[in-house]
Amino acid sequence: MKTRCYYLQILVFIGCCSILTAGCMKWVDYLKYPGDTDYKPCNIKKITAFNQSVLIDGSIDTAFYTYTFTYSSLGNPVSVITNSPGTGNPNFSFKYDKYNRLREFIRPYGNGGYEQMDRYGYNAKGQAVLDTGYVFGLMSGTEALPSPFVDYKYLEYDAQNRVLHEKDSILNNGHFEFILLYDYAYDANGNLITGAVYDNKMNMYRTNKVWMFILRDYSVNNQITNGQYNEFGLPVHYFGGSIKMFPAATGDIHIDYFCH
What we know:
Elements: H1 2-21, H2 27-30, E1 42-54, E2 60-71, E3 77-82, E4 92-96, E5 102-108, E6 113-122, E7 128-140, E8 143-144, E9 150-157, E10 163-172, E11 175-183, H3 209-215, E12 228-229, E13 235-243, E14 246-259
């Protein structure tokens, strides 16, 4: 009788645990899925970068950058606004089609012009296979106008829905100037092979599929060796690195998140 009760208690315990954990993946579980699976519990809220450098005359040059993120009710990125927009460091703006797929990725300066605008074409699988990019064009309100400088990127994917190959053709005055080929490869841990050293925590860019796609980087882990992390396993502070999304942001970097 005691044995039956003991086994019954074990079954009840297992059943309760299954109910409580069903549908709730922890960050360590997400690390097992290196494709384009995004980490739903969090989204990037703000990135702050503080950098000091010594000039030739011995003086200290201080740079301070902030990037503030906004999202739609569906969790799609809508904009990223920086405190110091300029060449190489524009704002971000995102537009979506009726299927909630990324239609346009615009990098406006806030002064009536933009650095680059990408428009995406999709295949039957819902993959963005054509990326039409315009450089240094004009804005009309929130709309980016096509510029004379355009390039076409043709994208191919692997079985895990990661961009694997990219062919970049530049068109100028009706003629292709040159073609660039990019190949992306991942190691056994699901990290992009670049020669970089990775940690064993959740990559901040995996919080949203948009970040992985526009960066062409679906790495499971971060290129960080001295990071501090929150309870969700995401980096909140590191020093001496950079933000791939924002090349101007280097040095002492802090990341805040919307988490639930």
